[in-house]
Amino acid sequence: MTKRTSVKYFTKVNQLNQLSEQEKNELKKITDKFAFRANDYYLSLIDWNDPDDPIRRIVIPSLQELDEWGRLDPSNEKTYTVMPGLQHKYHSVVVFLVTNKCDSLCRYCFRKRLFIESETEYLQDWDAAYQYVREHPEITNALLTGGDALMLPTPKLEEIIATLREIKHVKIIRLGTRIPAYNPYRIIDDPTLLKVIEKYSIKRKKIYIMTHFVHPRELTDVAVEGVNLLQKANAKLANQTPLTRGLNDDPKVLAELLARLSFIGVIPYYIFQCRPALGNKAYTVPIEQGYEIVRQAKSQVSGLAKRARYTMSHTSGKIEIVGKTKDKVYFRYHRAFRDKDSGRFMVFKSNPNACWFDDYDELLQDDPINTPHLMHSPD
Predict the structure, then answer these.
(1) Is 40 in the same domain as 141?
(2) Does the N-terminal or the C-terminal CB of the chain have fewer CB atoms within 10 Å?
(3) In which element (H, E) is residue 259 found?
(4) Domain that holds residue 291
(5) How far apart are CA 164 and CA 141, in angstroms?
(6) HSE on the CB side for 370, CA within 13 Å?
(7) In this structure, are strands 172-176 and 207-211 parallel, antiparallel, or unpaired?
């Protein structure tokens, strides 16, 4: 087992010797507005001789982040926030924003506001949050995210998991995390964490680790070792990745990511449309172009690797992009804020420049009940 005693962190770009002084000065304009954080493990994956290196694009700021586009709360999470740090959007799922910390910061993050207005965004009143869950028996799933759930000290994480396990109607606990990609030593060097997961991931109530691998090069030997340890601890792993310009918007790259995830037993779960967060214009692929990328990627892999759904986390729900023709694009609510909209099928006139659901304004068909099978995505 690979051990590492410490990981070194960087919170200022002028700490990075790989950057020129000119680059450091230019990038300070971005970091004055949007936080920067990275560690030496992840930075070691970058090919610094390649200015277009995809790993670099994930964590190193870009001047394009200053483009005036997007908003701090692109999915209007405040709409379904019942108290600071607690969201209840779908009737069976509650979301705990357990921290405003991440091991490193993705430049395309859709919750940049957590690092700007942190005290009002992540959970403070745990007793009130637990009581809310107790009073809502329809809640079967609790997602711990933030920030990154595995940034919490293991004793605090166990306290949360143990308390939720005492609430009988909570069957699934999910941990949203980028740690297996950003710092797998957090897993490898903490056997107590693995014991906690093994203790509370039981026969009829599993713990799911929602990983966030976005490029094949993140699946290093050390990262795969961390994944295997979580699996041995009886956690179920599923992966979510945003489709991101300059990172995984090549069908071959995306196909390789999906395939390699399936090889190590991590379910490809969602491919997300990059949310229109402030600073995200340069990272966003138009929806219809994204659909073609996903379709082509899926055509190259086995059924086990093509289970991910291409969706948007819109204010109104998770909207799956299920197909397109020359002049039409087809959507379905995979899960809706209003239960009656779940499964609702919609056809819009094509808009090749659309980057978000709100960019479509010509509804051609709206069929919430009888979805024509011939309009399903060929994937």
Answers:
(1) no
(2) N
(3) helix 251-263
(4) 77-316
(5) 10
(6) 0
(7) parallel
294 vs 291: CA distance, rounded Å: 5
pTM over 0.85: yes
Tens digit of pLDDT for each residue in 18-31? 999 999 999 999 99
Per-residue pLDDT tens digits for 51-64: 999 999 999 999 99
Residues 82 and 165 in one domain: yes
Burial class (CB in 10 A: 0-12, 13-18, 19+), 18: exposed
In a domain, 375, yes or no: no
CB atoms under 10 Å from CB of 173, counted, come to 23
CA angle in degrees (0–180, nearest 5) for 58-59-63:
90
Last residue of a domain, one of 285, 316, 347: 316
Please list the residues that pair with 336 across neighbouring strands. 317
- Residue corresponding to tokens 């997961």: 197
The answer to whether 216 and 261 have CB atoms below 8 angstroms apart is no
What string of DSSP letters covers 124-179?
--HHHHHHHHHT-TT--EEEEESS-GGGS-HHHHHHHHHHHHTSTT--EEEEE--H
Q: What is the CATH number of the domain that holds 274?
A: 3.20.20.70
Query: Any idea what DSSP says for residue 6?
Result: -
Contact status, residue 134 vs residue 185, Cβ threshold 8 Å = no
